[in-house]
Amino acid sequence: MSNIGIEKLNVYAGVAAIDSMELFRGRDLNPSRIQNIQQQRRSLGLGFEDPVTNAVHAAKPIVDMLGADADRIEMVIVSTESGIDYSKSIASYVHKYLGLGPQCRFLEVKQACYAATAALQMAIGYLHSGVSPGSKVLVIATDISLVDGRAGYAEPSTGFGAAAMLLGEDAEVLRIDRGAFGIHSFETMDSARPTPHADIADVDRSLFAYLDCLLNSFRNYRARVPGADFTSTFGYLCMHTPFAGLVQAAHRKMMRDEAGVVDPDAVAADFARRVAPSLVYPKVVGNLCSGSLYLALASLIEQREGDDPVRVGLFSYGSGCSSEFFSGVIDARSRAALRPFQIGAALDRRRLLSFEQYEAHLDATLDAIAPVQSRTIDLRAWEAFLPRERGRMLALVRIDDYYRQYEWI
C-alpha cells in the first residue's frame, strides 16, 4: 500500500479578525441571515501583508522543522487567485524567503478555489513516478480577500491566509488513496477577479454549480472505485467551504439524492458526526479560496473524537469551474503531525477589530496586490499588530520599480 500523501500541514490566517456580527452591524445587514452563512469571525489582511507573506508564514514552520532535509523539496507550487504579476510567479518570492536551495522547480497555478487540489494531484503524480526517490513537494495555497461593502452578504464570509502542505512518501497527515478520485468540470461565469481591486460573483449560479459538481464528481469517483458509498465508505467528509451554511446544504442534498436519506433527524445526525468537525476553523477564518479545503482538513483532524484510522472523502471546487472528489486516510499520526503548529491557538491570538478599525485599514488592504511602480509601506500604522521580537514576521515594506521588497520585522 502506498504511503504517499500529505506529510505536514500548517495554516496561517493573519493576525487580525472581525466578528461577523460586528461586520453585519457596520454594514447594516439583516442579522437574521447570519444563520444562513454560519460564520462567526473572519480573518483580515493588513497593509503590509500580501499573498507572499501569507505563503511564507504558512510554510516556514514546516521548512524549519525539516532542517537539512529541506533540500529534498524539489518542487514548490503556489496556488492563488491573488497573483501579483502576469509573468513572475509568487513562488519565486516564496522560494527566496523560505531559504530553499537552487535545485528546486517552482511555479504558480490558478483555477479559483480548486487550484491547490490540482497542485496536490500534480505533486502526487510526481512522487508516484519514482524518478526521484525520497523527494518532497511543497504546495501552498495563498490568497487575500478583495471585498468591501459592494460584496453584500459575501463580505462576512471571505477569509484571508494560506495553507501549506508538504507532500512526500511518509504521509503523517493524510495518506491519499491512489487512483481514487472523481472529476467534474465545465465553463461557467459564476465568479471572477477581473481587476486587482474587485471580486465579482453570480451567487446563485455559483451555488448551483457547487452542488452540481459535488454530486457529479462523487458519481465519477464511484465509477472509478467500485462499491464506494456516500454514507458508509467515508468516516468523515471535508468540503471546500465558502461558508459553512453551503456545506450543510450540500451534505443534505447528497444524503437525499445519492444516499436516499430524507429523514431530517438522520441527516442532521450524520452532518454532526461526519462533517461538523471540519467546519470549526472555517467558521472563524472565512473562505481561504484554494486553501479552504485544507483548512477544513486541519479542523477535522484536530476536532474529531479519537485517533482511529478512518477514510475521509474530500471535495474540492473552484469557480469557473473545476471540481474533484478524492479520498485518503487519517490516523493517530495525523493529530500529532499538526500539534507543533498550534493552529487553533494562533487563531485565538488574532486581534479583534471593530468595524470602524476595519474600515480605516480597508483601503490599504485592497491595495495589497495593486500593480504600482513604486510604493512605501509605513508600518507605524499597524504597530499594534507587529511582533515585539524582530525577525518573527515577514512584511511587504516597499515596491521599487515594480520589484516587491520584503523584510523580517
Break the fold down into its secondary structure elements and pairings.
Elements: E1 5-12, E2 16-19, H1 20-27, H2 34-37, E3 41-44, H3 51-66, E4 73-79, H4 90-97, E5 105-109, H5 115-129, E6 136-143, E7 161-168, E8 174-183, E9 191-195, E10 198-201, H6 203-224, E11 236-239, H7 244-257, H8 264-274, H9 282-285, H10 292-303, E12 310-318, E13 322-330, H11 332-338, H12 343-349, E14 351-352, H13 355-366, E15 375-376, E16 394-400, E17 403-408
Parallel strand pairs: 2-14, 4-5, 4-6, 11-12
Antiparallel strand pairs: 1-7, 1-8, 2-3, 6-7, 8-13, 9-10, 12-13, 15-16, 16-17
Helix pairs in contact: 3-4, 6-7
Short structural summary:
The protein contains 13 helices and 17 strands. It is an alpha+beta fold and 409 residues long. The chain has a single domain, classed as Peroxisomal Thiolase, Chain A, domain 1.
Strand fraction band? Answer: 15-25%
Q: Extract low-pLDDT stretches.
A: none
The major pleated sheet works out as: 9 strands, mixed
Backbone structural class = alpha+beta
- Helix and strand succession? EEHHEHEHEHEEEEEHEHHHHEEHHEHEEE
Judging from the principal axes of the Cα atoms, what is the shape?
A: globular
Please tell me how large the radius of gyration is.
Answer: 20 Å
CATH class category label = Alpha Beta
Descriptors:
single chain; 409 residues; alpha+beta; Peroxisomal Thiolase, Chain A, domain 1; nine-stranded mixed sheet; three-stranded mixed sheet; 13 helices; 17 strands; 34% helix; HMG_CoA_synth_N; transferase; Thiolase-like; hydroxymethylglutaryl-CoA synthase activity
